[in-house]
């Protein structure tokens, strides 16, 4: 059954200027409706994707984001709606920028590795300093080089923190508590990290030897792809009170953003689970619209094993970001001949944007325990939520939105509106507009580097020939994405940051 | 561990009563019987009073039996035994003084007047023009809101603020922070209206009250979190030994 573009449009309905509904029937077996958030710019991108796919009759190429959101709405045990955030784009099974929640008390409900993503607990953390742009500009190049020397980047990079296999086992179980115990983290870092930097359900025995072997030498490295460490300065403060709670007080204040995940270890955990889940699907007769939506019942052994392994990989990612925080603090301290303490290098927050978590939410006025999948989506809990740090109780949790290489980044805060409409979730970044291959064909890496230089951004990159994959032109405009979230009320703008130095794989 | 009950009974050293120490324990039992429980006649207390005697334990065993309190014997742990005797003594004290206790007027002003003389502050006439003027000056200086006809509450608020914010350690902390941040921080006033409680009781006053409660709760949570952080830091002093080895590092492609 192939429908024309016009016929497909019948199933789409605009709710308000910033959101659209995907009605049941858009794809078979939808249990709930879908919704996606866009402004006019982003809307055109989304609809063009759908039109292109209709032209080819759905054969070849990626499934359009809208179809992927709808396919997720057809998974067993889903509640509320399948939500597409403004940065949504095609991914493996689930679109990136898709969140969906499954009822833990429904025996049919599933967990899907595709709903978490391959880079488990990929996330962003933001450190502040008491330095101003003026302090940093004269030593910008040294600082960028020093960061590059401390934090190894690129495919196949190896970290400078010595780790034994035994250390890794402990790190997988303890997450940031391991970093604290060993002295790589500050006590306050734990306070300002989602889940306090440790998933308690983690079980290192559910992580394969292969995954551990890949993860061991990579701890404390940034990796490649869209990951980066940036020195940024505060460009705009929209919410003074919330910013002051984060210790951001003036324009030009220097911050450090680190964006990375669980490296090869997380990728291997995801890959391992896909194989076992395919078997479980056959056994339990789970039907999905897309083969990539491999899943297992939450309470099945395969589902539980995946969740425990995923939590261990999440812990690895936190240890990884903590190690890089330690190294970044050292790099700054050396360059400024000071101590990280005196430079006030506190962690503002650390968010995960590829993870599944057990959370409680109100569905039609009733409290339910859900397994919330966020893939390319950030948790954005509003004010007064018991799971956010005491410092952010009045403002809502900080939501860190990393831009693409060379573009702005944002700090948002969670809202009550988001709690009601999107299970306390919002966007995670810019979101791809061009595929990696397309970017390589269309853009020249010399131009991309030149453009950064013209903007006054120092760059250190391990493989310059791949930078066009991550060039701003390959992505949706992060400002459009953030603006849509702000206008739709699912999170609130607080701070805008602009980069002055980038370290990349 | 028994401090509150010991204080209630006016025990001479409620804070450092070491019940594990046999001598202290024996003296305590003798004190309790002589001063509070007075179950035996004075002559019959001799055995219990001879705290150095070898037979003292037998005397205690007999005494516990004679008291006829349920489950009170030498078999139970010493803590429990003391707890039971203390409770019994308090019950007796209460019965003896029941009229006095129940007719006590918990009127603060009355209490202040009765106790005047011991503390010069308690002699203050809260309505005298001198006091009121001074109070208002402090109020303006410290930005404390006023409450008509309730000068005592205002004074309490001021004293709390001084104790919390203007004690030497917080002043020092403030100065340190000032030194650290090179740019002067603007102070941002938070109004009650700008806070959301998450609960709407449909009553402005109730809503405001719940906001105030929230703020107090947040302050308590902050103190707790600070203590947790301090504990972690103390443990780190023992366990932490971060290492780096730059020869291990490798930049990828």
From TrEMBL, chain A:
Its EC number is 6.5.1.8. It catalyses: a 3'-end 3'-phospho-ribonucleotide-RNA + a 5'-end dephospho-ribonucleoside-RNA + GTP = a ribonucleotidyl-ribonucleotide-RNA + GMP + diphosphate; a 3'-end 2',3'-cyclophospho-ribonucleotide-RNA + a 5'-end dephospho-ribonucleoside-RNA + GTP + H2O = a ribonucleotidyl-ribonucleotide-RNA + GMP + diphosphate + H(+). GO terms for biological process: tRNA splicing, via endonucleolytic cleavage and ligation. It is an enzyme of class 6 (ligase). The active site is at 428 (gmp-histidine intermediate). Mn(2+) 1 binds at residues 119, 122, 227. GO terms for cellular component: nucleus; tRNA-splicing ligase complex. Its cofactor is Mn(2+). Catalytic component of the tRNA-splicing ligase complex. This is RNA-splicing ligase RtcB homolog. It comes from Brachionus calyciflorus.
From TrEMBL, chain B:
InterPro entries: RTRAF. Pfam families: RLL. It comes from the Eukaryota. This is Uncharacterized protein.
